[in-house]
Amino acid sequence: PFTPINQIVVGKWYKNHDETVNFNEDGTTDYYSKGTYEYIPYQSEILVYNSSKELKRIIFVHKVTAEQMVVSTFGSTKFSVWTSTQPPQLVTSITLNETSLNLHPGETSELTATVLPEDADNKAVTWKSSNSDVATVDGNGVVTAIADGNSTITCTAKDRSGVKATCEVKVSSHEYVDLGLPSGTLWAT
């Protein structure tokens, strides 16, 4: 049903996007403890052996293209789709330019998010305030102080990674004057 070329199996294949199987040019695979495989193109089968040369799995190949291999195993009525394309690259970390802010009511400050890795498929983020009566945040990370109190601004990756970063915001209407004195200095009036 397909061109009988052994090399077409070579490569890293992602089974249902949740596990990887390496088929190497030297006839080895990591599917069973770095065992070996034998591809029988005319019978549309891949025989997988463990490191002791025992046959552990027969994979029946139903379709092979450059992007996809549809297979099933003995006794199974389900087909597995293996793909040689990379699975989605999820966000692994988010870093904010500020981890805490001290603002007066009416002041604004812009938070920026650095999303890694650089090649993440979806680098978009959402912003949320834990207490919008104290501080709000818009879709661009601009924080606006509303009233005295504390709020946590959370930046969350829009992909399914669930990665988050937070910034603690303290809003106070009191003026703080820095006299440049060492901490712990007491004044008597």
Question: What can you see in these coordinates?
Answer:
The chain has 189 residues and is mainly beta. It is built from no helices and 16 strands. The protein has strands at 11-15, 19-23, 37-40, 45-49, 55-64, 68-73, 80-83, 93-96, 100-103, 108-110, 113-116, 125-129, 135-137, 142-145, 149-157, 164-171. The strands form four sheets. Strands 2-1-7-6-5-4-3 form a seven-stranded antiparallel beta sheet, with no helix packed on it. A four-stranded mixed beta sheet has the order 9-16-15-12, with no helix packed on it. Strands 10-14-13 form a three-stranded antiparallel beta sheet, with no helix packed on it. It is rod-shaped, with a radius of gyration of 29 Å. The protein starts with 10 loop residues before the first strand and ends in an 18-residue tail after the last strand. 18% of the residues are buried. Residues 1-6 have low confidence and may be disordered.
Summarize the structure.
The chain is mainly β and 189 residues long. The protein has strands at 11-15, 19-23, 37-40, 45-49, 55-64, 68-73, 80-83, 93-96, 100-103, 108-110, 113-116, 125-129, 135-137, 142-145, 149-157, 164-171. It is built from no helices and 16 strands.
Low-confidence stretches: 1-6
Instruction: State the share of residues found in helices, binned by percent.
Output: under 10%
What is the C-alpha radius of gyration, as a whole number of Å? 29 Å
General form: rod-shaped
Structural class: mainly beta
Major sheet summary line: 7 strands, antiparallel
- List the total number of helices: 0
Mean pLDDT rating: 84
User: How many β-strand stretches?
Assistant: 16
**CA-to-CA gap between the ends?**
96 Å
What fraction strand?
35-45%
H/E series: EEEEEEEEEEEEEEEE
Q: How is the largest sheet built, in terms of strand order?
A: 2-1-7-6-5-4-3
